[in-house]
Amino acid sequence: MPQRKIDVVLASVRRLIRVGASANLLNLLQKQHPADLAGVFGELNDRERQTAFDILLDRSPRHAMEALSELGPEAGAHLLEGRSAEDIARYVQELESDDAASIVEALPEELSRSVLDLMRGKQETEVEELLEYPEYTAGRIMNPNVFALSEELTVGEAITELQAARDVEMVFYLYTVDERRHLVGVTSLRRLLLVAPETPLKRIAVGDLLSVRVDTDQEEVARQVASYNLLAIPVVDLENKPVGVITVDDVIDVIKDEATEDIYRLAGVSTDDNVFSPARSSLRKRLPWLYVNLATAFLSAAVVKAFEPTISQATALAVFMPIVAGMGGNAGTQTLTVIVRGIALGELTFANSRKALLKESLVGIGNGVGIGVVAATAAWLVQGNGWLGLILALAMIINMFVAATAGTLVPIGLRALKVDPALASSVFITTLTDIFGFFAFLGLGHVFLRHLVAAG
Amino acid sequence: MPQRKIDVVLASVRRLIRVGASANLLNLLQKQHPADLAGVFGELNDRERQTAFDILLDRSPRHAMEALSELGPEAGAHLLEGRSAEDIARYVQELESDDAASIVEALPEELSRSVLDLMRGKQETEVEELLEYPEYTAGRIMNPNVFALSEELTVGEAITELQAARDVEMVFYLYTVDERRHLVGVTSLRRLLLVAPETPLKRIAVGDLLSVRVDTDQEEVARQVASYNLLAIPVVDLENKPVGVITVDDVIDVIKDEATEDIYRLAGVSTDDNVFSPARSSLRKRLPWLYVNLATAFLSAAVVKAFEPTISQATALAVFMPIVAGMGGNAGTQTLTVIVRGIALGELTFANSRKALLKESLVGIGNGVGIGVVAATAAWLVQGNGWLGLILALAMIINMFVAATAGTLVPIGLRALKVDPALASSVFITTLTDIFGFFAFLGLGHVFLRHLVAAG
After folding, report:
1. Which of A116, A51, A155, A331 is closest to B193 using CA atoms?
2. Helix spans in B275-352 (H)
3. In the A/B pair of chains, how many CB contacts fall below 8 A?
4. Distance (Å, whole) CA A397 – CA A371
5. Fewest CB atoms less than 10 Å from the CB: which of A217, A246, B339, B433?
């Protein structure tokens, strides 16, 4: 965490707000890149953020709206809520249609409807159309301004079209369509420069191109763009007509969001929780997960309770039982993490899951032996009872094997049920390793009780 | 995990290898995109993979080498090890210098040196130069073929230069330099098309451009490209002269790798472990982490051992003690995950860490009260002893507060010591929550022992 540029800006913004130096504040804000502004806004408190945003919005609406868009739809929409529907309708038109759609959708329902009613012309239609695609699909994240030309045009004509095009911001590929507007080819701007102007597009366009359908899941889009190193991928409708384009910068957002989601879900944190979300909202989001864990903790406590008479005769069992359960949980989490990430990266499929199960089981037994022997020796030295060590080692091997198989099968099973494996797996695994750990260790302790009491 | 295209290809590849149909196999392999081929290679066993790769390498060396490059440096280098240094030197020249450098570096040391000695001309120098930059820096991942022209040229001259350039694969930005080759501006290919050929580049180039230095950390590069939505960022040396360019597809790899690294490290899994790494290598990588955990588990067992006499008088304490420790661990993991991700995404800095600590402490106390009350009631109902419930609730609040503060401070502290916070935090947190959980619960149990024994 080096001193960041935005920390310096942040300090100045705060100071200028405090002393009410609006002109200086506006001047400072206008100089920042929208992405940096979003970073600054993200760290201001609600009142400061609204003040800074309002000053910028009145004088540089496009700049303000771009920063708002970078800030994310919820926080962004919140900054606009005090404005009239007319103003909002005008402001969101400063944005690309896909960004405008996200903001409009995040407004309170009634306001959102009024804004859509008030938006006029091309953008209105585009925003409304985008909002019709389900969340997390290609249709929702695409930019509807796709640059597609008839393959019958010449390169010279294409360049003229390109010069006339206004909305199309980041063109690097030029798509070609046949007479029925089906997507048929692609070429790059660079190629346009390398051939004579009278060359037909058809001659230089590559026919075997990748595209995704409007209903393709955004994760699948990200996977394709990333693995084929594309800068953009065209989106087609059900008839293979180009209706939009997804650029690599949108894909980066998808990849980052999905990674955060995986990391969070493994730990039982809700995806919209973060470092600076208000304490009350974090609490509301984290408590339910802890209650689920509490319920499962009582399940494993019930196992311990069943062995209470055994423990009362050999309290050494109480000392070592958390070790068996805890180590199983650790090993299970390792397996689970590798499996969940393997599913997310597309390496693990149903077809090769048997191979994964076999491998993880071997690792589980190996871990159990490796940890069991050391733990048994330590317990023997500490407690002076070889039987206790033996029981500890056996229980450890059993529990590590359970951890490995469960850590593999639970996420694969959840995936088969179309549940995100990252979401629910970890609570299953720790519950299983707690229950099996306690049961194996205390059960063995019960069987060999006279050896423990005799020597203990 | 839908049926993937590569699963179909994979089955055919296996079948063709089994029946020895080399011609058909070659034909099938040649039709696949290098990224897909890498996917197929990744799932073949070592012998099959070598067979398929060798067949392709002999007939379509560039295609084979591109697939090998997508497979990653270690696995890729392994496939080449059977070849002579002369052959390898020839094959790696099919690749871009940055990809070639990764492969050559992953070869066994002696072979790697011979290959470098045998490489000739421009590529040799480029590869050697790239290998001089430390790992994980901009210099290491950049492509040294940066397209930079004197700002004194006209647009027409620039287009001529562009048409003559061979190596420069994905050009979308054109960088301009002053007479001393300092990076001074940038323009896009599209802008070249929009102005008259006699326009000087100086007129259309934007001066205020972003660049990174060769020694910039790759995570920082990724952060800049992602937050400013760039397609490429120029890399400059210490004198601000352009020496390379990093394109967004390399950045995607960095983002994915860093996310995997964070996810893995939080679970104590080594970054080069994955679903299909051999069982023995996974075991060797996971056991050390489990031994660290075992050592800390013995630490917390020592706390329990100190209270053995107390437990022997009130065995109900043994039943509930894992709940306190486990729930603290769960809550600590939630906080830890949010903090580690906040650091990785650049949201959390030293400057705002006090705010984060305050927030997480509040959440910790809130969680403690919320969970404590429910757990206490349940314990009271199960065990019929109100004192036990009270002790459980108090211990839970203490431990959740410890979990929240430790979950915030440990990763921030590790970051200050320049240790990856994802790496070591989780073992610290669970050790702390185990020790404090046992100590708080059993300690309170000891203080109120007569109430527990009287009613128990």
Report:
1. A155
2. 279-306, 308-313, 316-344
3. 349
4. 8
5. A217
Question: Scanning the structure block, which residue is given the tokens 């002393």?
Answer: A19
Q: Residue B175, SS3? A: strand
Reported ipTM: the value is 0.71
Q: Is B300 within 8 Å of B435 (Cβ atoms)?
A: yes
Any CB–CB contact under 8 A between A413 and chain B?
no
Q: What is residue B456's predicted lDDT score, i.e. its pLDDT?
A: 42
CA-closest candidate to residue B67, choices A53, A132, A228: A228
Output the tens digit of pLDDT for each of chain A's 456 residues. 445 677 788 888 999 999 988 889 999 999 888 888 888 888 888 888 999 999 999 999 999 999 998 888 888 888 998 899 889 988 988 888 888 888 888 888 888 888 888 886 666 677 777 778 888 899 988 888 888 899 999 998 988 888 777 655 556 788 999 999 999 999 888 788 778 889 999 998 888 888 999 999 998 899 888 888 888 899 999 899 999 999 888 888 888 888 888 888 887 787 778 787 888 888 888 888 889 889 989 999 999 999 999 999 999 999 999 999 989 998 998 899 889 888 887 778 777 888 899 999 999 999 999 999 999 999 999 888 889 999 999 999 999 999 999 999 999 998 888 887 877 678 788 889 999 999 999 999 999 998 887 544
Nearest CA in chain B to A258: B259
Instruction: Please list the alpha-helical segments (H only) found in A345-385.
Output: 353-383
Which residue, A287, A300, A380, A286, is CA-closest to B321? A300
Q: Check if the beta carbon of residue A15 is closer than 8 Å to that of residue A48.
A: no
Could you tell me which of A206, A214, A219 has the C-alpha nearest to residue A239? A214
How would you classify the pairing of strands B242-247 and B232-236?
antiparallel
Work out the number of other CB atoms within 10 angstroms of the CB of residue B428: 19
CB contact B287 to A (< 8 Å): yes
Question: How big, in percent rounded to 5, are the helix, strand and coil portions of chain A?
Answer: 70, 5, 25
The helix/strand/coil state of B431 is helix
B410 phi/psi in degrees, rounded to 5: -60, -50
pLDDT digits (tens, 9 = 90+) for B260-273: 888 888 877 877 78
* Closest CA of chain A from B307, distance in Å: 9
Give the per-residue SS3 of B214-252.
CCCEHHHHHHHHHHCCCCEEEEECCCCCEEEEEEHHHHH
Residues of chain B numbered 301-360 and touching chain A (CB < 8 Å): 301, 304-305, 308, 311-312, 315-316, 318-323, 325-327, 330-331, 333-334, 336-343, 345-352, 355-356, 359-360
Question: Which residues on adjacent β-strands are paired with residue B244?
Answer: B235
Chain A positions touching B225 (Cβ under 8 A) are 252
**Gap from B105 CA to chain A (nearest CA, Å):** 23
Q: In the 8-state DSSP scheme, what is residue B429?
A: H
Read off the amino acid at residue A451. Answer: H
* Residues from chain A contacting residue B33 (CB–CB below 8 Å): 228
Q: pTM value?
A: 0.72
Q: Is the distance from CB of B418 to CB of B377 less than 8 angstroms?
A: no
Euclidean distance between CA atoms A286 and A210, whole angstroms: 41
Q: Which of B298, B330, B348 to mutate to test the interface with A (most CBs of A within 10 A)?
A: B330
**Using a CB-CB distance cutoff of 8 angstroms, which residues of chain A are in contact with residue B273?**
338
Which residues, given as ranges, of chain B have pLDDT below 70? 1-4, 120-124, 166-171, 424, 454-456
Q: List beta partners, residue A166.
A: none
B398 near B436, Cβ under 8 Å? yes
**Token digits of residue B111:** 């072979």
Which DSSP helix (H) or strand (E) runs through A67? helix A61-70
The residue in chain B having the minimum alpha-carbon distance to the alpha carbon of residue A249 is B229
Q: Does B272 touch chain A (CB under 8 A)?
A: no
- Which residue do the tokens 């301004």 mark? A145
